[in-house]
Amino acid sequence: GNSIGYLHIGELDNFDSNQPDSLGEEYIEAHLAALNAVLDEAITDLQNTNGIILDIRMHSGGTTSLDRAVAQRFIEQEINYGSFAAVNEEPRQLMLTPYDGIRLVQNTVLITSNFVQSSGEDMVIALKADNDIVQIGEATLGTFSDMLYLSLPNQWAFTLSNQIWLDKDGKNWES
């Protein structure tokens, strides 16, 4: 019936296919606008349900700005959902404010898998910090860190995960 709503979130790293890739964040505004338009429509359709199933099992990360835009649709108050820092740095707090528009405030069940990683992990700890979200399914992959871009003298480029991410209770979920 119509008593339970279902929302599937797949990849969000290049949400607007008419724009360059969002991973560099320089084109993020167009991707956010496209995502928010779709979320407005989906959430309008789901407003009168008694509960929500949020399925992110096939979300392998991408851009934290887009993941946080989704999470903002499920929280009712500003939350501190954790912190992150590179080794020997002061931790930076992870804050999230509710979306200033249509949101889902019903009881929500979050379905995860070991495919969820990177910015998808950020979404999970943000959603769980609100305490109204119930997580079921498999544990996420446990890979959080942003990428530090480096290059060698021979022009080889590589990235290194160089940060420690903690949830609101100070727990490190990194595998």
Summarize this structure briefly:
The protein has 175 residues and is α/β, with parallel strands linked by helices. Helices cover 22% and strands 28% of the residues.
Top keywords for this entry?
globular, about 180 residues, about 20% helix, alpha/beta, four-stranded parallel beta sheet, three-stranded antiparallel beta sheet
Mean pLDDT: 89
Shape: globular
Tally of contiguous helical segments: 3
What kind of sheet is the major sheet? 4 strands, parallel
Helix content: 10-25%
The low-confidence runs, each spanning 5 or more residues with pLDDT under 50, are none
Radius of gyration in whole Å, from Cα?
Answer: 17 Å
- Let me know the number of strands: 9
Secondary-structure element order, N to C: EHEHEEEHEEEE
Separation of the first and last Cα atoms: 39 Å
| Structural class assignment | alpha/beta
Strand order in the sheet with the most strands = 1-2-5-6
What percent of residues are in strands?
25-35%
